[in-house]
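Collaboration report, partner site 2.

Our partner group contributed sequences for two proteins of shared interest, and the home lab folded both. The records are reproduced in the order in which they were received, starting with the first partner submission.
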Amino acid sequence: MLYFSLASKAYARNLQYRGAHMLHNVASALFGYLYACIWIGIGQDRPLGEYDVQGMIGYIAFTQASLWISGFTTNGLGIPQSVRTGQISLDLMRPVHLFVHLMCREWGQIAYQFVYKSVPIYLLYVLVFSLSLPQQVTTLLLALAGLAAAAYLSICMNYIIGATALWTTESSWLYWMNHALINLLAGFFIPVEWLPRWLQTVSWLSPYPYLLYVPTRIYLGFEDASRLLGSLVWCVLMTLACLGVTAVVRRKVEVQGG
C-alpha cells in the first residue's frame, strides 16, 4: 500500500501541470514528424532494409513516443538535489529502502508520462501517417512488457547516476551523457543493425538496445518474446547493481557523519 501511495502521489503531482506538459507534447511530436519526413525523403531513392518507408515511419513514431517512458526519466531520480540539501541522510533513515522508495515514486512519473505523453503522441502519428496497429493482442502485450522492462532499466540507470552525486555533488553531465548514448546505442536515431559492426557489438553488450530498439521491434512484429529474455537478464543485473550502490551510499553518508 505504501509503494502504491508513493507512485500515486507522483502521478497526482504531475496532473497539476498538464497544460504546461502539452507544450512538451507539441515539441516532441514536431520533432518526430520532421524526423519521419527525413526518412520519407531518403526512402524515395533507396531501400530501407526490411522496414520500407511506412515501416520506418512506424519505427520513428514508436521510438519517439517511447522516449517519455525510457528516455526522459527524472535526472538521478532526484538524488543530486537531496545530496545538496542534506535530505539524503533523512531518506536513508526511512523504513523503506532508498532504491525502492525512489523507484516507486518514479513509476508514478512514468505512468503519467505514458498516459498523457506517449499515448497521445503515438495516436497523433497514427492519424497523420495512417499507421496500422498490431493485428494480434499478444504483440501489443509483449511490446508493453518490453516497455515496462525498459522503464525499469532507465530507473536503475538513473539511480546509479544520481548516486554519483555523493562524490561529485553534481551528476547532470552523466545524465546527459546517458541520454546521448540512448540516442545512439538504443536505436533512436537509426536502427541498431544499421550501426557499424563494432558499434553494434558495443550496443548489445550494454542495456541500451532494450530501452527502445527491442520494444519497438517487438511492436512492429520483427521480434518475438525471446528478445525479452535479454531485458529480464539486464533487469536482474541492474537491480543487484542498485542494491550494491545503496550499500556504498549508506556507508559514504555514515563516514561523513550524515
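Second partner submission, folded after the first:
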Amino acid sequence: MSQNNYLIDKRVILDCERMTLSCAGESITISESERSLLIAFHEGLFKKDDLINYVWGRKGVVVSDASYYKLINQLRGSFDKIGLKGHLL
C-alpha cells in the first residue's frame, strides 16, 4: 500500500493523493476536510477541539462547532455511499 494510502477498519482504503474512499469495489471522491479528519482519526485524535485544530486550525481557519458537526455528518454520508454504516463515526 502506498505511503499516501491508509487502510481503515481492514476494508476501507483512503487514497490521500486521489482524495478517494474505496470499499468492496465502490469508490467516491471526498473533500480535503474529510480526508484531514480521517487522517486525524488515524493519528489517534478523537477530542473535538483536537480535531478542529487538526482540520482547520493548522490553516489558520477559525470555525464554529457547527462546521465540525457538519463535517462529521458529511463524512458519515460518504461512508454510506460506499456501503458502510455512517453511524460508525
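Feedback sent to the partner group on the second submission included the following. The first helix runs from residue 32 to 42. The chain has a mean pLDDT of 93.
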